[in-house]
Write a structure and sequence with these properties.
394 residues; alpha/beta; Metallo-beta-lactamase, Chain A; Rossmann fold; seven-stranded mixed β-sheet; 24 strands; 25% strand; Flavodoxin; electron transfer activity; Rubredoxin-O_OxRdtase; ODP_dom
Amino acid sequence: MKAVAKDIYYVGVNDRQKALFENLWPLPGGVSYNSYLIVDDKTVLVDTVDICYSDLFFKRVAKLLNGRKLDYLVVDHMEPDHAGSIRLLRQIYPDVKIIGNKQTFGMLAGYHGITDGLHEVKEGDTLDLGHHKLSFYMAPMVHWPEVMVTYEETEKVLFSADAFGTFGTLDGGVLDTDMDTDRFWSEMTRYYANIVGKYGGPVQRALKKLSGLDIQTICSTHGPVWTRQSGDVIALYDRLSRYEGLDGVTIVYGSMYGHTEQMAEDIATALSDGGVRHIAMHNVSKSHGSYILRDVFNYRGLIVGCPTYSGQLYPEVEMVLSEIKLREVKDRLFSYFGSFTWAGAAVKHLAAYAEAMKWEVVGTPVDQKQGISTEEQCIALGQAMAERLRGTNK
């Protein structure tokens, strides 16, 4: 068990078995479920783990307690991948007092039938453990309504629930100083876009609330413990929750027989020739939606290409667009193109989508009939987006 600060220990587990997080999002690198134990005059466990790993988890907790009782369990988040082991924990430590807020306790009763031995905390309440002192801050809708975060004032540690989480297991190291964290940044963006992305407003409010704290270490419920790079982690969440994209372009397209794909290729070439260095291309029939959403959140420009399918959008494109709309992504520069054989409709649907999202449309949309070449129009569309990203075509 790794110490993350004085008398604060990591007791989480790795999940290398699950293929899909929430049965939706691919986990090629697995995921960690993080829990933390504070051993002071009073002992405190912060969150638990998925019930599938409860046996290993309880062994780690018992080893660190070394015969001592567990005084408190802080529940920052009730999602089952973190709260799944609470009922079993209460059976092992029947006298443990469970700390949470009013919303927490409603879910605790619903999921586990636990209604006693509870200690309710409100905004700014504190708990003195001896050397350590905890304070509690509500963070509703980051990304569930009961979410709160816990700040340990002595060591300046923030237990942040799912905020600042990332996909990916912890392969030996726990602290960011003990590992190469390069692989986690893209996965943090993917995690944010898919799990938290809809709730930019609540994230901004939480960041503002926490801005007055001296946060030296961030202990999320997924991914590394952030120490040296904690400032970078907060900065990334700040940017993503403001829907501020980097100067790059995500090209999303569907193509049945290659015509729409060739249009996408022409546009990408024009973007590159125009100086755009960050271009992410996704064929919706091959790229999982979670990776598309990651790049849509990451880049300021979005170009969508779609063939007409039974008078509507190509189904896989329509699905991705619905996921973007669900997350209420704001302030994107949008271009679009399409193709058809006998009755074009996709481009009209994309125009209506842009209007509904209140995005700025860049360039002239391109609509290709059958195999009739639209190369020059596609190049012009790509050039227009490149110029707009440079700020020369407003």
